[in-house]
Design goal:
about 150 residues; alpha/beta; 5 strands
């Protein structure tokens, strides 16, 4: 007997777990583990980034998807270095919150914001995208943290 998922919890325009393929820009919709079905864990790459860093102007509502996508394709696409392909196991479905959470839906936001820990813990890996090519600050932090 299958359990029914209350529709009130989910946005009508996104499923409960929407992953985007940055190559095709299509969504893969899955039910999350709080529903009755899951399509398997560790089948996506979680993308962490600073929204403000990817906005072209401070007044922009959302990050620049074209710029994010270009950088993302260098990580999960055919042009990714072999080491990254190994780390991601060739997974190309990504969770990127500006796309996977319906930004026009308070219902989608209310559901997903408290569940972000699950999005990251169930990912194959987490990629931190920086907009500029200078990782100096990140290397300093990594050194201080003995990473």
């Amino acid at each position: 007997m299958s359990e029914k998922i209350p529709r009130a919890f989910f946005s009508s325009s996104h499923s409960s777990f929407a992953l985007i393929d940055p190559i095709t820009q299509k969504f893969h919709r899955r039910l999350d583990r709080h529903g009755y079905l899951t399509s398997g864990l560790r089948r996506h790459v979680a993308v962490w980034y600073v929204w403000s860093e990817w906005k072209d102007h401070p007044s922009d509502r959302l990050p620049n998807w074209a710029a994010l996508r270009e950088r993302l394709l260098s990580v999960v696409g055919d042009a990714a270095p072999q080491g990254l392909k190994t780390a991601t196991w060739g997974v190309s479905s990504c969770w990127i919150d500006c796309k996977c959470i319906d930004q026009d839906s308070d219902i989608d936001k209310a559901y997903w914001i408290p569940h972000m820990d699950e999005v990251y813990s169930e990912a194959r890996c987490t990629v931190f995208l920086i907009r500029n090519d200078d990782p100096t600050q990140l290397l300093k932090v990594a050194k201080e943290m003995s990473c």
